[in-house]
Design goal:
Length: about 150
């Protein structure tokens, strides 16, 4: 927590993410609650979360204390729900600000919010900010690999 506080003090706009595995053998309900408390305390920008997958080749597959599949699913869903609120909160803080975005290419999925664009010859593009946030935007000339300034709306 000291390191995170120090990072945020020196770089207030830093984006933090983490990986979390829920349902590892012997994870008690209290252990899981502590994980949720950590989410509430740190308020990550994003997380990569997974339910522990019991693979026969993994040493942990032989551990007693395996967590049931439904319990793992329930824990994962709750974790993702809690994090979704923090992700939305962090993303909302970006509204109205301009960020440099590395263009990754044309959007693979058409976004409704761009369908009514009055200007012709625009392509729906996607890219990432320096903090790895995905941004979708319209452009006539942006190409993969370009850095473009995009105002978040």
């Amino acid at each position: 927590m000291k390191k995170i506080s120090g990072l945020r003090e020196k770089c207030p706009d830093i984006a933090l993410s983490t990986d979390i595995i829920v349902g590892f053998p012997y994870e008690s309900p209290d252990d899981f609650e502590q994980t949720l408390e950590l989410l509430h305390e740190i308020k990550f920008d994003s997380i990569f979360a997974f339910a522990y997958s019991n693979r026969s080749s993994a040493p942990a597959s032989k551990f007693d204390g395996q967590i049931g599949e439904q319990e793992k699913k329930d824990r994962l869903n709750l974790l993702l729900e809690v994090q979704q609120g923090y992700t939305e909160e962090k993303n909302a803080l970006m509204t109205g600000k301009t960020f440099p975005v590395l263009v990754e290419g044309k959007s693979s999925k058409k976004r409704e919010c761009f369908e009514n664009s009055e200007e012709k010859n625009l392509s729906q593009m996607t890219g990432r900010t320096e903090s790895n946030k995905i941004v979708h935007f319209m452009s006539k000339s942006a190409r993969t690999g370009d850095m473009v300034d995009i105002m978040i709306q």
